[in-house]
Design brief:
alpha+beta, YefM-like fold, 2 domains, about 20% strand
Length: about 100
């Protein structure tokens, strides 16, 4: 996958469009750091692509939450401890 500086998109949109058409995806960088991913979308597929990107973002968020829970030792909790934590949270929420 090719990387293009954000300024290429701003200053040379034709060059960027050619690159995207040739590669299919282009990683945009800003000040040398990854900024966004541009994806060439075939006509009529916008909704499908948006749905898939949303699913991917959700999967990444869940993976990050699981890793954070493991790092905090929450994977070692027993079922009774989980049930008690849920009861405690719900009791505090009703107030």
């Amino acid at each position: 996958m090719e990387t293009a500086a954000l300024r290429v998109l701003r200053n040379e949109p034709g060059k960027f469009e050619e690159l995207l058409a040739r590669q299919g995806t282009v990683l945009l960088s800003k000040e040398g750091k990854p900024f966004a991913l541009a994806v060439d979308i075939a006509e009529g597929t916008l909704e499908d692509v948006v749905r898939l990107v949303t699913q991917i973002r959700a999967q990444v968020a869940v993976s990050e939450m699981r890793a954070g829970a493991r790092a905090r030792g929450l994977g070692e909790l027993k079922s009774l401890q989980v049930d008690e934590a849920i009861r405690s949270y719900r009791a505090g929420r009703k107030r």
